[in-house]
Amino acid sequence: MKITKLFETTILFVLLGALSFAFSSTEQMSEISYKIQYMIGNRQAKELVQFLGSLDFEKLTLIEKADYIIALSELYSWAGVDYSYSEKAYKLADEMLKKYPEFWKFHYAMAVVLSHRVQKNNLLAITLVGKIDYHLNQAMQYGPKEWEPFFLAGVRNLEVPLFPNLMLAEQYLKKALDNNPEHIYTYLMYGKLFEKKGQFCDALNIYKRALQLPIRPEWKVVDEEAKNEIKNRIPEVERKCTKK
């Protein structure tokens, strides 16, 4: 049962991305959160494992704790570590949600942890999609000015092979861009949305805007990946736009 090409496409950031951090500018971010983001965005697995090991989780701020949880799940997603990283991430997210049920980023972190598990085993989507949607909805409710949960919810509704909800996907991706207009990967997904709607000239405009954005040092690998995919899509989209 193929429920998620979506998670495979998304979670590159979610995470990862997107990966997955609560700030659009490094000036607002703590040094710990920035270091975690940098290591994820540049795929520095060994350094990230060592850095997380040096931290005292109990002394971290709430945002830093959420980023710590996401980092554990990120490592499970792409760094080749064992399942214990996902187990620890889930346990910590569950504990934090019991203590802080209205803090958006713990809901988002849980959605990321569960999404990464689906990414590893698509059959888990049967039991986990409802939980992922619940935590994304909670994250969007409690973090209306954050971009990450809206981005992931947008991809969730766009990339599902059976019965994608393009209206919801557009609503969420637009909100993600409103909250963070510098996130290149959101432009990529927004362009794909317009392609699915047959609005190829709109998709082309979105892709061109994305290519004008600078590569961010802390998201170098992720941003370059997104731009490369956009460059590969543009020739076909230009042809379809011209035919229109």
TrEMBL record:
TPR repeats lie at residues 184-217. Keywords: TPR repeat. InterPro entries: TPR-like_helical_dom_sf, TPR_rpt. It comes from the Bacteria. This is Uncharacterized protein. It comes from Fervidobacterium pennivorans (strain DSM 9078 / Ven5).
